[in-house]
């Protein structure tokens, strides 16, 4: 029981510290580059504003019906 309480306390302390770090840093949490941004016909990433590789393999892999519908809804 002691080990569980110690582990729970330490884990709670670490998670709380990370949460406070995000709050006090004042930066908003952003998505990662690539992903769904890579399948849209945009020239630049929506997050970092870097150019998107037109030959990205994600464009072929992610062109599922759901992604096509999402792109149609964006237009």
Written account of the structure:
The chain has about 80 residues and is mainly α. It has a domain at about 30-75. Helix content is about 50%, strand content about 0%. It is elongated and about 55 Å long.
- Provide mean pLDDT, rounded: 75
Integer-rounded radius of gyration: 20 Å
User: What is the helix tally?
Assistant: 3
Order of helices and strands: HHH
Strand content: under 5%
List low-confidence stretches: none
Q: Alpha-carbon distance between the termini?
A: 57 Å
Based on CA inertia axes, which overall geometry fits?
Answer: elongated
**Largest sheet properties:** none
The structural class is mainly alpha
Percentage of residues assigned to helices: 40-55%
Number of strands: 0
List keywords for this structure.
mainly alpha; elongated; 52% helix; 75 residues
Short recap of the structure:
The protein is mainly alpha-helical and about 80 residues long. The chain has helices at about 1-25, 55-60, 65-75.
What is the element layout, followed by pairings?
Layout: H1 2-25, H2 57-61, H3 65-74
